[in-house]
Amino acid sequence: MAVLDAPENAATAVAGCAESSSDLNLSLRRRRSSDGDSVAVMESHKTVDPGSVSESETSKRNGEEPRRDKDKIENRGAADIKFTYRPSVPAHRALRESPLSSDAIFRQSHAGLFNLCIVVLIAVNSRLIIENVMKYGWLIRTGFWFSSRSLRDWPLLMCCLTLPILSLAAFLVEKLAYQKHISDSIAIFCHIVITSAAVLYPVFVILSCESAAVLSGVTLMLFACIVWLKLVSYAHTNYDMRAIANSIDKGDAPGDTLSSEYSRDVSFKSLVYFMLAPTLCYQPSYPRTSSVRKSWVFRQFVKLIIFTGFMGFIIEQYINPIVKNSQHPLKGDLLNAIERVLKLSVPNLYVWLCMFYCFFHLWLNILAELLRFGDREFYKDWWNARTVDEYWRMWNMPVHKWMVRHVYFPCLRHGIPKGVAVVVAFFVSAVFHELCIAVPCHIFKLWAFIGIMFQVPLVVITNFLQEKFRSSMVGNMIFWFIFCILGQPMSVLLYYHDVMNRKGLTESI
C-alpha cells in the first residue's frame, strides 16, 4: 500500500506494467500514432526557424530530448492503466490449447524438458557408475588400448597402408581409357580386378593371422570396404562421363547434359582429394569452404578423445561382464536370454550412440574441415525416423548417396522394378556387413547378413503401420525397439558366444 501512496513510485510501477502488457502496448501505439499525426499536422503549419533548429540540436546533444520522451511514455502509461486493465475487460479472447495436449504438443518447444532429461540422465548414470565401481571394482585392463599383443597385428597395419596403391592402378586405367588406348570393356575388366583385390587382399591377410585381434580386423575391413566403395564410384562415374561425352560428340545428347566441370582427361589431384575426402561419391570437384578453423578442429579432437574413452569404459566396465555371464541366446534358457538382452540393451545403446557421434559427427567433420570439404550432411535426423525405410535413408548419408547413385538408379534404368532394386541395395549392404564382422571373427554364420536382409520385411511392416496409425510416435517407438532393444544386443550375444566356442575348439585341438 505504501507504493500506491507514493506518486513517483506509482508512475514508475504503472509504466513498467504498461510496457510488459501486450494490450497496453497496443493502446500506447495507438495513442502515439494519433499524437504523432497531430504533431505532424501542427508542424506543417509552422515555418522553420534556424534558431529553433540549432536550439533543438543543442538539446539533443545535452540529452534533454530522450529524457522528455521517456517522461511522456511514463505519463501515457499512467493514463492508459486506468482504461486497459479494468475488471470489465475480457481475460479470455481466443481458442487456445494446453501446451501438452495432443494437438499442440508437437508445435511447442521442449528445450527445457530436454535439458531436464539430460540432467536426470547424468545424475542417474553417475550413481550407477559409482555403484558399479564400488561393487565390482575397476574392471578396465591396463592393456586395453595397447599392449605387447598389439604388435602381432602388424600384417593388418601393412595391409592397410598398401591398400591405397590400388587407387593409383584405377587412375592409370582411366588415363588409358580417356586417351583411347584401351576400350571401355577392357577398362571395366581392369576395374573389376582392382576392386576385387581391394576386398580379397584384406580378407586373406586377416584369415591368415589367427592371433589378430577382432577390433583390428574390423577396422581393416571397414577401411577396405570404404576403399572398395570409392573405387567403384570412381570407375562408374568416369565411365558415365565418357559415355555422355561420346553421345554429345555423336549428336545423340544435348551439349548441356554433361557437367561443366567435366574435362577430356582425368586428374590425379582430384582422385587423391576424393580418396581422402569424407564422401563415397566421386565427382571432379566439390564445394569447398574458404578456410580451416584450427581452434574448432582442436575442440572436436578433444571431444573425440573424451567420447572414445567413454566408449571404452562402458565396454570394459559393463558390456564385457554382462556378455561373459550370459548363455548362447538360441541354445540356453529363453527367460535368461531375454534378461541378458534387456540388460545389455542400455550400455549397448550408449556405445552405439557414442560411436555414431564420434564417427559421423566428430571425425567426418574434422576431416571435412581439414580438407575444406563443404557438403557436411553426413546424417539427417534419423532419431525421428517413423519407419525402418526412413532410418536407412537418413542415418548414414555417404553410404545412402552411394547406394542411390551406383545401385538403385542403375537398376531402375535397366528396367528392374523399384521393389527389386531396394532388395538389391539391401543385399549389397548385407554382404559388406557380413564381411566386416564375420571375417575378423573367423566365423561365417551369416548373422549380420540375415540381420540386414531382415530389414526388407521390416520396411514393409513399418510402412504399413505408419499408414494405418498415421502417427509418427508409433513408428518411431517400433524403430527404437527393433534396433536398440532387440536387434543389436542379440547380435552381440550371438557373435560373442560363437567366437568363444570357436576359440574353445581350436584350443582343444
Pick out its properties:
mainly alpha; 0% strand; 19 helices; 509 residues; 73% helix; globular
Could you provide a short overview of the structure?
The chain has 509 residues and is mainly alpha-helical. The protein has 19 helices and no strands.
Largest sheet, in brief, is: none
**Number of H- or I-type helical stretches:** 19
The helix-strand sequence is: HHHHHHHHHHHHHHHHHHH
Average of pLDDT: 77
Number of strands: 0
- Based on CA atoms alone, the radius of gyration comes out at 34 Å
Strand content of the residues, in percent?
under 5%
Helix content: over 70%
Overall 3D shape: globular
Low-confidence stretches: 1-63
Q: Helices and strands: which structural class?
A: mainly alpha
What is the CA-CA span between the terminal residues? Answer: 95 Å
Helix/strand layout:
Blueprint (H helix, E strand, L loop, with lengths): L1 H4 L1 H14 L1 H23 L5 H13 L1 H21 L26 H26 L17 H9 L2 H14 L5 H25 L5 H37 L17 H9 L17 H31 L9 H38 L16 H7 L2 H17 L4 H24 L5 H7 L1 H15 L2 H37 L1
Overall description:
The protein has 509 residues and is mostly helical. Helices cover 73% and strands 0% of the residues. The chain is built from 19 helices and no strands. It has helices spanning 2-5, 7-20, 22-44, 50-62, 64-84, 111-136, 154-162, 165-178, 184-208, 214-250, 268-276, 294-324, 334-371, 388-394, 397-413, 418-441, 447-453, 455-469, 472-508. The termini are far apart. Mean pLDDT is 77; it is low at 1-63.
